[in-house]
Amino acid sequence: MKKALVCGAGGFIGGHLVNRLKEEGYWVRGVDLKSNEYGNNNADEFVIGDLRDINIVSEVVSDDLDEVYQLAADMGGAGFVFTGHNDSDIMHNSALCNLNVLEEVKKKRIKKIFYSSSACMYPEYNQMDPNNPKCSEDSAYPAAPDSEYGWEKLFSERLYLTYNRNHGIDVKIARFHNIFGPMGTWDGGREKAPAALCRKVAEAPDGGAIEVWGDGKQTRSFLIVDECVEGVRRLMDSDFIGPVNIGSEEMISINDFAKMIVDISGKKLTIVNIEGPTGVAGRNSDNRLIREKLGWAPNMSLREGTEKTYKWILEQIENKQ
Asked: Which of 149, 160, 163, 310 is catalytic?
């Protein structure tokens, strides 16, 4: 039986990844600052611990592990990442987690580790046109991310690649593009756009209005978490290091995305655009490389993924009430 460690297992993607590994017959240890608030806690062993603490890392990165999945990071949606108020925490906390985990993986001679990077590391200058963003993997340099979160992700990518070159560790790097779905943060200030919009629509009275940050013309693609996990597992089982995009190529404006959610809800709502942090003008996954290297790319429609997510968030709101 293979043994894996999932760092960040108390989080949204981490919880889903644990489930996938269990389905495949793995023994799984999870570690995070907290357990999953939605009960998505299916690891064989779960350690509440801080990966900034090298003693915790030494405990959870044991020499009997076959694989490590490093998803732990200090992160959130636009309201957390793009205001500038959390930049020092984002850079310090996430970088320290990666430094500690990689060094312990080297020390314990663990052969394979996955790192979850982000599309936020792509240069801002290639994402100024909402209708024609450039996010191919080879467009990363000259580097110019639009946030410190993106800069930390870029630094950590290079960190992992140095451990591959200097210490022979088989690293796998994926750049996630706006992962969403059930059992993810949907309120409290760290939620991302799909969850925030689903919550706003679900809470709005029929005939009312919802607020959308910016002019709503900014574009994104969003990937359902099940396909994200599928991509991670395929990358880990391949001989490709990466970095590689794991995202959808179905680009949509934020206003049109909000309209889709309103339509799913069956309500009649008005969209009101207000000032707020928005990030780059356009971002969309380029899946040419993942098709070439893995013979696969995500294909679930945004509508299908959004229907699943809206239904789950609506249930959370009703249960809370």
From this structure: 149
